[in-house]
């Protein structure tokens, strides 16, 4: 994507405390005032424009849209951009049907939030969406707001057909939890490598770290979902120590695709996990761990010393559950991921930018410019940011000791329910903004912040779209997952690795899958 030096300054909304909203007691809500920015002085948006927005990107589809005179965020957008904003919020599960009905009737919304790249490509192919390529160089701040991989996800057939919708949240759900009290009791240090981690897990299993004289503790527990997929349940994090992961983890190196689930390093990762299984450091209940709630129960009971869980388990509500279920609040700490033999130190890969903002092809040049200006303002204006990310000033946030303080967690249930509609505007919140999440335990915020440096880049394999002619796709994926589990557990010895690869080629047409991936990577410009 080319970038020019042309600047496009967006309006800054000046928010002041205004009229007390009904039911707020002594709370005051911020009211936007008229802007005196250079843009308005130059009559950049002299003509008022009506813009319709199909917002399925809301964080709470059930919340009703408030009247305009109570909708602070809507007023800010309308004043900053000189627009009349008509926002539609489709109910959960009804968005696709509603949007298709609007399209079929010729009433295409000007601005559309889409949840998947496949939807973005599909609607573009149908002639519903505009090509934004000719306009984006006028919005350098908007381009800088999102990373290269996010913008690559907006590219299709050599054109940019969308703007990233909102940041996905990374660096919290796959945190490395370890019992620091057990480490202290066994006089061991925080592990930093796979080998050190194995020794710690072995000690947690064999040396009675809880001191009850029983052989009832384990070094690790993971799981897999009900479809037999190992991703997100812990074992995949162990594989990342070796720089590999199950389907569909595909990298591009040296101008060719690298399928990490059949890479030679995957064999090493499986050997490591098999070593754990053989040493019995893995809680045997792992085969039944097919939901996050079941893994949480293991965390609460306190009989496992190392797990991959969400850092928010350090929050007070979860700490209380630990006390209720396990009888104590263990000294769980979040540590950096292990540094593997090839230098990989990954807590997780950055989530793929599937969601997007798209603009109707029926919109003329002026409307496209106005909408992109609104998105640039929404996502990049520093003064406006807390008003959208956190909510209403004086209610959801305020300035405390010269800094923005998110007060949402301090609100009563009634106040939270009264202002549920602010969730319609939270999309600009940054995925690494600890203040947005309003963590109650400082250790949660610390873990979240520290983990950010170990979030790897998004894998290009996420850009691939399904080949309709690949009738073996589902069977191939199932075979790969089942084979990995067999190698992990020793049901199939790793001496059969080459047979596994051969079966993929002969029975599941792996070469066809490779050819499809190569073709799509070439179309995306990732392979020359």
From TrEMBL:
PANTHER family, sorted: ARABINOSE-BINDING PROTEIN-RELATED, POLYGALACTURONAN_RHAMNOGALACTURONAN-BINDING PROTEIN YTCQ
Keyword Signal set for record: yes
Any matching Pfam family: SBP_bac_1
Keywords: Cell membrane, Lipoprotein, Membrane, Palmitate, Signal
The organism's taxonomic lineage, starting at the top: Bacteria, Bacillati, Bacillota, Bacilli, Bacillales
SUPFAM superfamilies linked: Periplasmic binding protein-like II (SSF53850)
Source organism (scientific name): Paenibacillus ferrarius
Protein name: ABC transporter substrate-binding protein
PROSITE patterns: PROKAR_LIPOPROTEIN (PS51257)
InterPro entries: Bact_solute-bd_prot1, SBP
């Amino acid at each position: 994507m080319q970038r020019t030096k042309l600047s496009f300054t967006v309006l800054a909304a000046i928010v002041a405390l205004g009229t007390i909203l009904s039911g707020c007691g002594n709370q005051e809500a911020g009211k936007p005032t008229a802007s005196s920015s250079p843009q308005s002085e130059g009559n950049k948006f002299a003509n008022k424009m009506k813009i319709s927005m199909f917002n399925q990107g809301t964080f709470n589809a059930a919340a009703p849209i408030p009247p305009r005179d109570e909708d602070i965020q809507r007023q800010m957008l309308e004043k900053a951009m000189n627009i009349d904003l008509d926002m539609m919020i489709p109910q959960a599960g009804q968005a696709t049907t509603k949007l298709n009905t609007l399209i079929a009737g010729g009433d295409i919304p000007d601005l559309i939030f889409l949840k998947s790249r496949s939807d973005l490509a599909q609607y573009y192919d149908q002639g519903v969406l505009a090509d934004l390529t000719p306009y984006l160089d006028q919005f350098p701040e908007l381009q800088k707001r999102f990373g290269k991989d996010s913008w690559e996800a907006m590219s299709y057939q050599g054109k940019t057909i969308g703007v990233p919708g909102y940041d996905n949240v990374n660096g919290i759900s796959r945190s490395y939890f370890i019992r620091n009290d057990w480490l202290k009791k066994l006089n061991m240090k925080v592990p930093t490598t796979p080998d050190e981690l194995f020794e710690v897990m072995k000690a947690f299993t064999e040396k009675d770290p809880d001191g009850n004289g029983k052989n009832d503790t384990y070094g690790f527990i993971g799981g897999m979902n009900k479809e037999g997929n190992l991703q997100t349940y812990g074992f995949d994090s162990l594989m990342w120590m070796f720089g590999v992961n199950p389907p569909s983890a595909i990298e591009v190196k040296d101008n060719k695709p690298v399928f990490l689930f059949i890479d030679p390093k995957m064999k090493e990762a499986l050997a490591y996990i098999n070593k754990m299984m053989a040493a019995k450091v893995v809680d045997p209940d792992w085969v039944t761990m097919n939901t996050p709630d079941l893994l949480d129960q293991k965390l609460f009971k306190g009989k496992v010393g190392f797990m991959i869980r969400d850092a928010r388990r350090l929050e007070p509500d979860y700490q209380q559950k630990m006390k209720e279920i396990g009888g104590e609040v263990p000294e769980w700490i979040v540590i950096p991921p292990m540094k593997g033999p090839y230098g990989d130190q990954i807590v997780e890969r950055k989530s793929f930018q599937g969601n997007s903002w798209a603009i109707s092809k029926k919109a003329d040049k002026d409307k496209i410019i106005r909408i992109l200006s609104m998105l640039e303002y929404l996502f990049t204006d520093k003064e406006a940011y807390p008003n959208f990310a956190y909510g209403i000033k004086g209610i959801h946030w305020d300035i405390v000791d010269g800094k923005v303080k998110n007060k949402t967690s301090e609100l009563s249930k009634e106040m939270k329910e009264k202002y549920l509609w602010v969730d319609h505007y939270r999309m600009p919140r940054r995925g690494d903004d600890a203040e947005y999440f309003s963590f109650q335990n400082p250790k949660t915020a610390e873990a979240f912040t520290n983990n950010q440096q170990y979030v790897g880049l998004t894998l290009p394999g996420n850009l691939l779209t399904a080949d309709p002619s690949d009738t073996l796709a589902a069977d191939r994926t199932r075979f790969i997952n089942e084979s990995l589990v067999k190698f992990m557990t020793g049901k199939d010895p790793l001496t059969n690795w080459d047979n596994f690869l051969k079966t993929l080629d002969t029975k599941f047409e792996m070469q066809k899958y490779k050819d499809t991936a190569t073709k799509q990577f070439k179309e995306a410009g990732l392979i020359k």
